[in-house]
Amino acid sequence: MYTPTHLIFGMAAFGRPDAPKITAAAIAGAAIPDLSLYLLAGTHLLILGTDPQVVFGEMYFSDAWQSVFRIDNSFLVWGMVLALGLALRRAWIVALAGSALLHIGLDFPLHHDDGRAHFWPITNWIFESPVSYWDPAHFGRILTPIEVLVSWGVCAWLSQRYRGSAMRAVIGVFGLLQVPVAYAWVVGVGT
């Protein structure tokens, strides 16, 4: 799924309107599994000027990058963080880990040939789903608009839960981040 969708779903599932620290942890947990990709790709694309085809066609699949993705996308690693949060009775750790696990759980069935080793360190096996959230050869043209519409619906629901103007602005930004995804779907770029 697209990162903004993870932010929206993580906030919806684990955020609490009466607890800003927990909501922030839920948003952070939703972002962390994709953070390494943004840092690695961003460095190459924006600073080093590496061709996007090289970044996403070669570097993304390299052992070096995949070794990083194994850690921040591991059900086992995040499961241990969740267990720690439960043992310590720290709601913010539970929200962080729960949101990351939700992110990984939603990504697992929606990556065809660009998945991650979600069961590291036990195995480096990568599930190759028959469907993809973005790839038109694997139902991306069907899944993308569903993802965007559901995300906007969840944003509307979140706007009812969070009454403060700052949080409504955050929700609005998350909703606006879906616009490029919707645009790409309409013009057929990447979906």
Secondary structure class reads: mainly alpha
Number of helices: 9
Count of individual domains? 1
**Major sheet, described briefly?**
none
> What is Rg?
17 Å
Strand percentage lies at under 5%
Helix content: 55-70%
Number of strands: 0
Order of helices and strands: HHHHHHHHH
Oligomer: single chain
The best one-word shape is: globular
Mean pLDDT: 93
**How far do the termini sit from each other?**
12 Å
Question: How is this structure best described in words?
Answer:
The protein has 191 residues and is mostly helical. Helices cover 68% and strands 0% of the residues. It has one domain. The chain has 9 helices and no strands. Keywords: Membrane, Transmembrane, Transmembrane helix. This is Cobalamin biosynthesis protein CobQ.
Task: Tell me briefly what this model is.
The protein is an all-alpha fold and 191 residues long.
Question: What structural keywords apply?
Answer:
191 residues; mainly alpha; 68% helix; 0% strand; globular; Cobalamin biosynthesis protein CobQ; transmembrane
How are the SSEs ordered, and which strands pair?
Elements: H1 3-14, H2 20-47, H3 52-57, H4 63-72, H5 75-88, H6 91-107, H7 140-161, H8 165-176, H9 179-187
Protein name: Cobalamin biosynthesis protein CobQ
Keywords: Membrane, Transmembrane, Transmembrane helix
Transmembrane segments: 75-102, 139-159, 166-186
